[in-house]
Design goal:
By secondary structure, the protein is of the alpha+beta class. Helices cover 27% and strands 18% of the residues. The protein has a three-stranded antiparallel sheet with strand order 1-2-3, with helices on one face. Strands 4-5-6 form a three-stranded antiparallel sheet. Strand 2 (78-84) and strand 3 form a beta hairpin. Helix 2 (37-48) packs parallel to helix 3 (97-108). The radius of gyration is 23 Å and the shape is elongated. The chain starts with a helix and ends with a helix. The mean pLDDT is 79.
Length: 195
């Protein structure tokens, strides 16, 4: 045995790990902390499905088969690739490393992956920041309505945009697509009123 193998044996024994095979690879590193709400939701979803997101120290995306593409345009910068029949195949490009890892875990478990290219579920609604916002949420509930959240909107709700440079107290603009054109429906004091 080499000095390095002896040191490895000693380190593994001290850590309480198996020392029967000095050539065994070390255990996978702990998963990286999700950097976004969508990433955290993908981790929670994996847990609900009983799946483990496979980490990798050899991947700059932190997960097996996941590569962070820094120069890629758009919001989807995490590419998932696997070897199929001796060839590297791209399975998709995702907004977060965790979403790509969830796709991989489902594929490895033999589950249907046809719905995984859909955007992740909307995050839970933000807490109303004002009494008027809270009242708008209660009113929607009384009317049997649900305020649709959105991770793609800085207002927190679908179609709602927070206009930081807008003068006055009404800074939340609601816009929708009508006949292929974007139409402003109004400007409101809270995101909840706009939603």
């Amino acid at each position: 045995a080499t000095a390095e193998q002896a040191a490895l044996f000693y380190a593994r024994r001290e850590a309480g790990r198996d020392t029967s095979d000095l050539t065994a690879p070390p255990p996978a590193p702990p998963p990286p902390a999700p950097s976004t709400a969508a990433g955290a939701e993908a981790v929670r979803q994996a847990g609900r499905e009983g799946l483990t997101l496979t980490t990798s120290i050899g991947s700059n995306g932190g997960y097996k088969g996941v590569t962070y593409c820094v120069n890629r345009k758009g919001s989807k910068k995490y590419k998932l690739q696997v070897m199929v029949g001796g060839k590297q195949v791209t399975l998709g490009v995702f907004a977060t490393a965790e979403q790509a890892a969830l796709f991989y875990a489902r594929r490895e478990a033999g589950r249907d992956t046809s719905d995984l290219t859909a955007p992740p579920p909307a995050p839970p609604p933000p807490a109303p920041s004002t009494a008027a916002g809270a009242e708008a949420v209660r009113q929607a509930g009384r009317e049997g309505l649900t305020l649709t959240t959105s991770i793609g909107s800085n207002g927190g709700y679908k179609g709602v945009t927070y206009c930081v440079n807008r003068k006055g107290s009404k800074k939340y603009k609601l816009q929708v697509m009508v006949g292929g054109k974007q139409v402003t429906l109004g400007v409101f004091a809270t995101a909840e009123q706009a939603a």
